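[step 3/7] fold_predict: job queued, chain A
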Amino acid sequence: MQVVGYESGEGLHVASGGAVEFVEATPGTELAFGLGDRRCAGTVHDGRHIACDAADAPYCDAHSHVWVCARCTGTCLKDEMDCHEEHAVYLAGFAPDVWKVGVTRLWRLETRLREQGADRAVHIRTYPDGRVAREVEAELAARDDLVDRVRVPTKIAGFGRDVDRAGWERLVDAFDPIERFAFDDGVTLEDRPVTETMAAGTVRGWKGRVLLLARGGSTYAVDARELVGYELTEAVPDRELQSSLGAFGE
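[step 4/7] structure written:
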């Protein structure tokens, strides 16, 4: 079985012999897989997995897909502009004090915020198409207090920590938000989670694409994208894992 995809908050897509199955990974689920070799995850077409032997993972050049809209700053990078629907400009807050500006289709706003693992967010503007929204995003990203991308390690470093509410409110107050969001992943962390790539343990929950697993008295933060391409084995390695990094505030 090879991991060929994931659904944040739900589980992993795994493939074997062309068939694709779903492995649930909701809170309380026990996962008991080892990780074998890793290679390109290939592609899934009409519900069937088309394997690829390339060593590049999670995808080789032939199977990589770059969403050009993510790089847009208002000048369309496609042959023909196709973002003719309402887009939202939002601010997302990640504990303790990382503030991001972003754009998404209006109907996907809350879903997009959950996918990113945001702790707080506000919808600040609505535009009739993506081009104008991306122009505004690029302008705001030039501010000293905003970024347009937050890497997963930065997000993990804030897990279990409180948002700087005073700093967040100072930022938000300048934009007269249309709607506010506060997200609770339902996981209380007493210790700092350890970043690991593994598929064995009790699922504590998800935060964005990060899967939180309990194992051996510690909590591990697993970037689900880092699992894509791995072969799953039934033999869970009995290896030493780094234990939790100690209580917050120490």
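[step 5/7] annotate
DSSP finds four helices and 15 strands in the chain.
Residues 2-65+187-233 form one domain.
exit 0
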